[in-house]
Amino acid sequence: GRFLLNLIAFLEKDDPAFLDRLGIYAVDIVRRFDHPRIKFTEGADALPPIEGCIFSFELFDALPCHVVTNEGGTLSELYVEEGRFVPGPFSDLRIAEGLTVPEGCRREVYYEAAPLYGLLASRLRQGHLLTFDYGFKASVLSRPGLFPDGTLMSYSGHKFGRDVLQNPGQQDITYAINFPTLQEEGERQGLRTEGMQSLAAFVSEAGHGLPPEAMAWNDPFPARDLFFGTIGQDLKVLNQHR
User: Fold this and answer.
1) Which of 77, 21, 73, 79 is nearest to 52 (CA)?
2) For 118-149, how does the pLDDT look when each residue is reduced to its tens digit (9 = 90+)?
3) How far is residue 117's CA from residue 210's CA, in Å, rounded to a whole number?
4) Among the listed residues 193, 226, 187, 172, the one whose alpha carbon sits nearest the alpha carbon of residue 59
5) Which of 16, 65, 132, 137 is the most exposed place for a label (fewest CB within 10 A)?
6) How do beta strands 153-156 and 172-174 pair?
7) Among 76, 59, 71, which Cα is nearest to 103's?
8) Which three-class secondary structure string do you get for 128-193?
9) Does 31 have pLDDT greater than 90?
């Protein structure tokens, strides 16, 4: 929501005629504010056909996932009981299909991302589908020794942590998504892939330079972090269009 408010405020000053030609929709389960220029809906299935841009920011890494562990050669799903992870039987037999987890390691499994991405792609009549999220290619996620404990982690105060069960409700929980899964789903919907790159590279190519004040050292969240910090390097952008 705040991104749209900033966008509207910028266009009101910089190009009000262009803003008047825009239809702006926000999909959010929790409606936090009202704005005369924004049409709210609780689900992507209620979006009309879009000519323009559909974008999401950290949407797919917020979807539910299953965590699988391999202990003693046996694959188990992890459940939360009394504030800790405990192994148990699979809640869904699809979880183990084609899954390889090295001994003593963990992996995340999720099913909601591809259908949701496909729904967004189906709503795009012409334009771009931009997905900003944490993730990698499948070859990176499955590389031996790179993510032995999986990618499930917490995020609070611009810092990552591994104890995702600490302080329930007071920190974000995230994991790295498999971008090719989304890319393939978009292509099945007829989209063409323009590329996947870091947020820093995307901003660098899309912009026309930053004003000096944006790079001020006394800025509590300086723009330079978009280029050199964790956010700029770890956040990826998948760009598909029709």
Assistant:
1) 21
2) 999 999 999 999 999 999 887 788 777 888 88
3) 32
4) 172
5) 16
6) antiparallel
7) 71
8) EEEEEEEEECHHHHCCCCCCCCCCCEEEECCEEECCCCCCCCCCEEECCEEHHHHHHHHHHCCCEE
9) no
